[in-house]
Design brief:
This protein is an alpha+beta fold. The chain has two domains: about 200 residues, no CATH class; about 120 residues, Endonuclease, Chain A, CATH 3.30.870.10. Helices cover about 55% and strands about 15% of the residues. The chain contains 15 helices and eleven strands. The longest helix is centred in the middle third of the chain and has 37 residues.
Length: about 350
């Protein structure tokens, strides 16, 4: 007699609203499915009984109708819901703090009647998600991994679970799947645009990350002084600044230094002596006077030799550091005495020297 009453109670139970069922539909392996625990709750039966009925009629449930979740898939779902539960705990904690630690009865009074709140929550769509979370949190240990049923598999359940509530619930579930398909179809373009926007944002983020790295490298090199200016101007009085700029370029040379300058003196030899050991130095100049020749002879007797070659076909001055060519607006001996400009040329040292 007790069994008959229980059956009547189950069969007279109200059906779940469509929105509650829609919240139970998940996408796993690219398919829209509902888990066995959620289906069992909708049908008003135990999960174990639902799966037993399926196992007895296994030939009706091929792989595209039903499949068992892998351990990794179950863990992934559990971690997702654990994150949601953690966020819920934080929100509850914040609400409790904002209430000023009042007694629970007073807090309920301030927010309305407690029974009314429970009733509202029971009819909300969040209830379905919450119950699903509770069910999922019990997975693990020696429990069997849950089964996922596709739309076709759920339709087949109506032939296995023949109670009136199971049949009526199946109708509601089919309507939920249909409503979701219509929603997806109606908003296909929106989803496509969102996908394009997401892809664009990811691309922009990647480009931004790359740009940030480049900027960081530029700033780092600026900080350690490893970035060379391509062009600039030194004004009168900037004797030391101009001197430092030229000597830094000289120190950068690893193989050779070539200077084309019509007006040099012994101070130019001093600048070129700041080059690293093994770096050759050669000067093309117009005014190779007897005094300059004597200065060069005495210099080369004590320091690494500098070669000086007569050359009078250049009006401007050029400083070549390995394969980089700078156009210099003033003779090296007159640096900083008057305004002068410098610029890195778009040609190599060999391309310049071949014209000599």
């Amino acid at each position: 007699m007790a069994k008959k009453k229980d059956i009547e109670k189950v069969e007279s139970a109200p059906l779940q609203p469509l929105e509650n069922i829609e919240n139970l539909i998940q996408v796993i392996r690219g398919k829209q499915v509902i888990l066995d625990r959620d289906l069992a709750r909708l049908y008003g039966v135990e999960t174990k009984r639902l799966n037993q009925q399926v196992q007895r009629n296994l030939e009706r449930f091929p792989a595209d109708f039903m499949f068992q979740l892998s351990k990794e898939e179950a863990e992934s779902l559990r971690s997702q819901f654990a994150t949601l539960n953690a966020e819920d705990e934080i929100l509850m904690s914040q609400n409790a703090t904002s209430s000023g630690d009042f007694p629970r009865s007073r807090f309920a009074t301030l927010n309305g009647e407690q029974e009314n709140l429970k009733s509202q929550f029971a009819t909300s769509s969040e209830e379905a998600i919450l119950k699903s979370q509770i069910a999922i949190s019990s997975w693990g240990g020696t429990r069997k991994l849950p089964y996922a049923f596709t739309e076709n598999g759920i339709a087949m359940l109506s032939s296995v679970l023949r109670s009136p509530i199971a049949i009526a619930t199946n109708i509601q579930i089919m309507r939920a799947f249909t409503a979701m398909r219509r929603f997806i179809a109606a908003n296909a373009q929106v989803f496509q645009r969102l996908e394009v926007i997401e892809h664009t944002q990811l691309s922009l983020a990647a480009h931004q990350e790359e740009a940030d790295k480049k900027f960081e490298e530029i700033f780092r090199r600026l900080d350690d002084g490893s970035v060379t200016q391509k062009q600039g101007i030194f004004y009168d009085g900037q004797i030391f600044d101009a001197y430092v700029f030229i000597t830094e370029r000289v120190r950068e040379a690893k193989k050779r230094i070539v200077l084309i300058d019509n007006y040099i003196d012994e101070s130019v030899f001093t600048i070129l002596d700041k080059r690293t050991q093994g770096t050759k130095a050669k000067v093309y100049t117009k005014n190779l006077t007897p005094q300059l020749s004597l200065d060069l002879e005495k210099h080369n007797a004590q320091y690494a030799p500098i070669e000086v070659v007569p050359f009078d076909r250049s009006h401007d001055r050029f400083l070549c550091i390995d394969d980089t060519v700078y156009h210099i607006g003033a003779s090296l001996k007159d640096l900083g005495k008057k305004w002068f400009a410098f610029a890195k040329m778009e040609l190599t040292t060999d391309e310049l020297l071949i014209k000599i």
